[in-house]
Amino acid sequence: MKSIRLLIISSLMVVAFGCSTVSYQYDYDPETNYTDLKTFNWMSVSVQENIHTLNVKRIQKAVNAQLETKGCKMTTDSPDFLISMHVAKEEKMDVRAWNYSYGGRAMLHGGSYAATTQYDVYQYEEGTFVLDFVDAQSRELIWRGIAQGEVRNYSNPVKRNERINEVVRNVLSNFPPVK
User: Fold this and answer.
1) What's the N-to-C CA distance of the chain in angstroms?
2) Contact 172, 129 (CB under 8 A)
3) pLDDT per residue over 8-42, tens digit each?
4) Range of the structural domain that residue 56 is part of
5) Is residue 101 part of a domain?
């Protein structure tokens, strides 16, 4: 009975702590007048070889759509700001040690005591998505948004689109920044 309870508790802990979430960060130049930024264009896209080109297109489409909801429009004719995107992923490993014991009464009373350690190894891919907005005239960075977390490889393209849209929406939730 104790081992079943222990198995259930350790399984719940793996579920609770083993699933990583996406962390979001952003930074911006407080001197920039963000209300003047109405048009944009893509500048550069830096992507590792292990990133699928369809996902890069999905990300760009999601960024364009989110910026349009914020009143910005893509143009090749004298944009107010340029977008640079960096996407990378790498293999990660999370190792957790679970110590538990079982046996008779405490050692002082002559009972037996046994301890064991179980190791859970969780391999995953961690992705990093950096979105930079650069002033089109000065070419200086004015805003940066970053998402970092576990990459989930959905077999369904609809699910991939939904996940990418969610991440992009969260990255851009702080654009334009509230001063």
Assistant:
1) 58
2) no
3) 443 333 333 344 589 999 999 999 999 999 999 99
4) 20-94+124-174
5) no
